[in-house]
Design brief:
63 residues; mainly alpha; flat
Amino acid sequence: MTTFEYAGSPDPVRDDLAAAHRRVWERIARSSTWLTGAQRVAVADESRRAKGCELCHQRKQAA
């Protein structure tokens, strides 16, 4: 399971928010009707990387 570190955050993260973050991540990592837990985590990971995707940027500029 993924661990979350908030030490690098510019602002303090309350314990209840950190706990909620862990609960949500555990839910994402569970299998669903269409995807396995690993696939759902991969979708979340790819979504995080989309902001820096050069191809996505080029496609948006071309539209």
